[in-house]
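fyi for ur records
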Amino acid sequence: MGPITVRTFRPEDADDLRMVYYQLYDERDAGEPVGISLFATRPSIDDERQWFERQYAQLQSGELIGLVAEVDGHAVGSCSVARHGPTADSEQGHAAELGILVRRDMRGRGVGTALLEEALRESRAKFEVVFLSVFEFNARAQRLYERFGFTVCGRLPRAVKRGGRYFDLIRMVRFLDEAPAGLGRTVKPPQPSDR
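which gave:
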């Protein structure tokens, strides 16, 4: 494996990212736990093209941070941080939602860490707080997020229904005004009385 390069996504990344996303459907259909919400059936190539075009437009407008991890000339993961509010000056404009996706054979090899590090670095210039959702069973991802200073702020019971089974989503938050205490670590979070 070559070095991991994290950069802003480009239109030519669409095919690689679509294949990474489609692999999740194969994993789910094989009965493996998949830590991201999926549609009942795999979206068409045209659906995926339209989705990517919308993402790219948001990136160009400054309302989205869109990153890919590239290894050996291919996008092997992505991370987006999207503003909650419609504009920066709206009441939720300071808050964002993080989503991350890593190709199966690249998980556990530093791709997620590299993406999160850069996503949070760039987020500090645009947002004050970043939220994410993680499946209750995805302990590996939860540990990664905790290393980067995310803390649990809630639980969405039965938020996902897959194959007749329900799964809870854990909500996590990272306040970006907290001083870093090392790679992915923060000092004690402010208490409600401090805000």
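Residues 181-195 have pLDDT under 50 and may be disordered. thats all i got for now
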